[in-house]
Amino acid sequence: MQEHHLPVSRTARYFTLGSPEHARDVWIVCHGYGKLAARFLERFLPLEDEYRYIVAPEGLSRFYATESPAERRVGASWMTREDRLHEIEDYVRYLDAVYKQVLPPGATITALGFSQGAATVCRWVAMGASRVDRLIVWGGEIPPDLDLTRGSAAERLRIARLMLVYGTRDEFFTPKIVAATESRLREHGIAYELVSFEGGHEIHEPTLKKLT
Q1: Inter-CA distances, 58 with 114, 129, 195, 197, 208, Å
Q2: Judging by beta carbons within 10 Å of its beta carbon (0-12, 13-18, 19+), is residue 184 exposed, middle or buried?
């Protein structure tokens, strides 16, 4: 048995809030595992503004997220452990394409990733061709496989204004993981801001508003 790979084109989708016409502040927000972009974008309705444009790309792999035949809820994923390197390459190119499609001239760019989307935006900023002014890692960690010792990955994270956001009762991004992430960033000389809130694994509206 031999494994083969063949690049193909496919249709991806993204959702937006606001208009790019007068946008000075663009947010590209990536959802967590098993979510859909439209539902995730609803969390950002409180940030709607004449000069803000919010873009939510959807993970390229959709699946039925529930076993119940009656409900059949659909979710999306950015990647799995199966053939992971090619999936990473695919979504980095995809997010670069979204960036080129939506970017208004002169706008400030914020990339926010929640949960699985946190690792997604980190890899995109580190490995992609897009310029990001601020990187918000919410309820997730800097991917352990991302090499911060040398090369462009670490440098791009240093250039972006990096923020770690977490809930004090988050059952996934626990205080232990937060501490390990901070230690790793300090070890490699990557500056960051730490923002916490009383809550769990969620987009916390009052905290979100403080980040605008």
Answers
A1: 13, 19, 26, 26, 20
A2: middle
SS3 at position 22: coil
Residue pair 157/192 in contact by the 8 Å Cβ criterion: no
Alpha helices by DSSP H, listed for 22-145, are 37-41, 84-102, 116-127
Tokens of residue 104, six digits: 């208004």
Q: Where in the chain are the domains? A: 14-210
- pLDDT tens, residue by residue, 98-150: 999 999 989 999 999 999 999 999 999 999 999 999 999 999 999 998 988 87
The answer, as to whether pTM is greater than 0.90, is yes
**What is the C-alpha separation between 27 and 211, in angstroms, rounded?**
11
According to DSSP, the β-strands at 14-17 and 52-57 are antiparallel
Higher pLDDT, 200 or 71: 200
Instruction: Give tens-digit pLDDT for 33-74.
Output: 999 999 999 999 999 999 999 999 999 999 888 766 667 889
> Which fold does the domain 14-210 belong to in CATH?
Rossmann fold (3.40.50)
